[in-house]
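Why do we care about 3D structure at all? Because function follows from shape, and shape follows, mostly, from sequence. That is the central idea of this module. The next example makes it concrete: a single protein chain, its amino acid sequence, and then its structure expressed as tokens.
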Amino acid sequence: KTATTVEGNDHPVFQVTSGKLSLAGFGYSSSGYEDAYPSMKPYSGKISDFRLWAGKRLDEPKLFERQPKRACVKGDANTYVERKKVKGCKQRCIKNKSCLGYEKSKKKCIHFKEIPVLGPSKKGTSCFRVVS
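And the structure:
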């Protein structure tokens, strides 16, 4: 039996490929690739080691820049999610990998999937944006 995993304190890998990563094969490419290169075959065999580097550490905490008394500009409906529960607004944004900012007031919490643009002055509201 060949060991296929290594035990350790590694951090999980997250990629836009819905959590799938191809090594030494065609992966999730279009069928046009196989049509264009019919004589090429994916690697078949054992891989003893591979390395993957990321631009940022995956466990790095999100840092937010606070803009007090400023609203965040809301784009189209796909770029933000409005939540009525205000308590824990920041923690929910930190846990959600796609949250890149939030607006918080006494009555609502809005999470943004893109870094929000600062809007007009608004008393009792703060806009928080991820600092890269």
